[in-house]
Design goal:
The complex is a heterodimer of chains A (about 70) and B (about 200). Chain A has about 70 residues and is an all-alpha fold. Helices cover about 75% and strands about 0% of the residues of chain A. In chain A, helix 1 packs antiparallel against helix 2. The two termini of chain A are about 20 Å apart. The mean pLDDT of chain A is about 90. Chain B is an all-alpha fold. Chain B contains five helices and two strands, in the order H-E-H-H-H-H-E. Chain B has helices at about 15-50, 55-80, 85-110, 135-165, 175-200; strands at about 50, 205. Chain B has a two-stranded parallel sheet with strand order 1-2. The longest helix of chain B is centred in the first third of the chain and has 34 residues, at about 15-50. The model of chain B is unreliable at about 1-5 (pLDDT under 50). Classes of the chains: A mainly alpha (about 70), B mainly alpha (about 200). The interface of A and B includes residues 9, 16, 40, 61 and 65 of A.
Chain lengths: ~70, ~200
């Protein structure tokens, strides 16, 4: 496996791990806190940002070269 | 097709330019869809306030995890084709589609309980109906609109898988894969906001 492919797969796994941890935190906060709206909204924003950056590659929009 | 033919006198833009335009167009489409999903999101907070219907937390957590896992396999499929790893590309696409279908079934069969399933002692199956006031209306509008996008996403993934099986994509040319992956992740992002809004925020009303 070449280095860039391994790095791409590794990034996917790290992103999945981050999303899994944040979802678990979200769940624990949601079922235990009385008024969790703000915290949950912040966590959702972080999760969305991680997906947009790592999975959707938003930076490709202003990058010159392409596949 | 050749980039320069006798008839078009070379007016077809280079592939890199086409891809850049495609990406911009797709992101603009996502932006336009934000108004639809944003309206549903606002409707939830406007009509439900700090309350929510009684929903199975287990089902919510499971379907959310399944969709996130599906997004990971979609990413893996795109990364695989970008490195000409066809085997991983095709298998990851199939896994992403199957997980998408499981999510859809989880929402429609379990949460909506379209078949009216009732198992004694098991509280997984939903009891909310679209006619149950603002709870039912908003819940079915949000999950229904999202499920429709999941269904179209699964159809796109299977279409791409079929094209991939025929060898239509390469590491140099795979916009179909990239576009489908972008769409699938967008559907994922929408659910990232819908999940807490539907299942976790507010007390059971």
């Amino acid at each position: 496996m070449n280095e860039s492919k391994a790095a791409a797969y590794r990034l996917g796994l790290i992103t999945l791990l981050i999303l899994a941890v944040l979802t678990a935190v979200e769940y624990i906060i949601g079922v235990n806190m009385t008024n969790p709206a703000t915290v949950l909204f912040v966590i959702a924003l972080v999760k969305a940002a991680v997906v947009v950056q790592n999975f959707m590659h938003i930076y490709r929009l202003w990058r010159e070269e392409s596949h | 097709m050749s980039a320069v033919t006798h008839h078009d006198h070379g007016h077809e833009p280079p592939y890199a330019v086409q891809i850049k335009s495609n990406r911009l167009g797709l992101w603009l489409f996502f932006f336009s869809e934000l108004f639809l999903f944003g309206a549903l999101f606002v409707a939830r907070f406007s009509l439900w306030g700090n309350t929510r219907p009684e929903l199975s937390q287990v089902v919510g957590l499971i379907v959310t995890s399944i969709l996130l896992l599906s997004g990971f396999f979609m990413y893996r499929a795109e990364s695989a084709i970008a490195h000409d790893d066809r085997k991983t590309f095709l298998s990851s696409l199939l896994i992403a589609a199957v997980l998408g279908i499981i999510f859809f079934v989880g929402v429609v069969v379990v949460e909506w309980n379209v078949f009216g399933i009732h198992v004694e002692g098991v509280e997984l199956f939903g009891h909310l109906k679209p006619t149950d006031g603002v709870f039912g209306g908003v819940f079915f509008a949000m999950t229904g609109m999202h499920a429709l996008h999941v269904l179209s996403g699964v159809a796109l993934i299977l279409f791409v898988w079929n094209n991939g099986r025929k060898g239509n994509y390469s590491s140099d040319r795979h916009w179909g894969v990239e576009g489908t992956a972008l769409y699938w992740h967008y559907v994922d992002v929408i659910w990232i906001f819908f999940y807490p809004a539907l299942y976790l925020i507010g007390h059971v009303g």
